[in-house]
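**User:** Hello, beginner here. Are you able to go through the protein record under this note? It all follows right here:
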Amino acid sequence: MPLFLDDLSKPEFWKSVGCGTGNHVSLTVVLPTGRHRSNQSGHLALASDGMYAAEIATAIASLARNADLDGVRVRSILDIDFAEHLQVEQEAEHGECCLAKHGNLLVLATADVNVVGEKLLTACRSAERYGVGYSVPYGHCQIIGGRGTVYTERSHPNVGVLALYENPWCEEGRRIAMFSGGIHATGTMGASRLLLGYLRSEFTGNNKYKNEVPVRILDVPRRRYKKIELLDEQQCIPQHDVRGIVDEELNIFE
């Protein structure tokens, strides 16, 4: 079935993807570590990659209750633990139920630091099916727009992608996978804030140039601090600039 980002704000949609084992929506939040051997980035994961996760879960819980469900059951897990769990399930003849097979997913950060992000985009054949979003190889973090625009770290360092997929590992009913990832942490935060906006009916529509594709590409400015002094990123280990975003200034490219 086709997916539409607008559906994320509809209680009946969340009822349709509610977990079959109870009267609730099951949500697994997959957080990045940057520790998997296939990772392309030398940076470890940042606290900023998990920004808005709590607000997103709260918004989904509210929508679920409006659909006469008992809210949402949330579990947070590191990408390497999720990947290990998934691999064990694939290799074992009889194993315990895998989280991926029964619930909805929120995968945070790109394939260069989140191995589940890479597995998700690969399993969904994202580049082939959508033609918008991260291109292959996914770990190189290059984004292709609906009209062929190429977004790179050099041209758009704060760009982010919000995408919606069906959970490719689900074996019971219909479950979804929400992906929020930016070339830098700024883009990941922006994409997560956009997801929250869809849940709150603040935004509408799929991709600007491909209406059938549930992928949005955006840019967001980094926050400038006037009252406090930040440690220079060259003094950080690993060297990385961590700061908030101006979430009221999301610039949706497409």
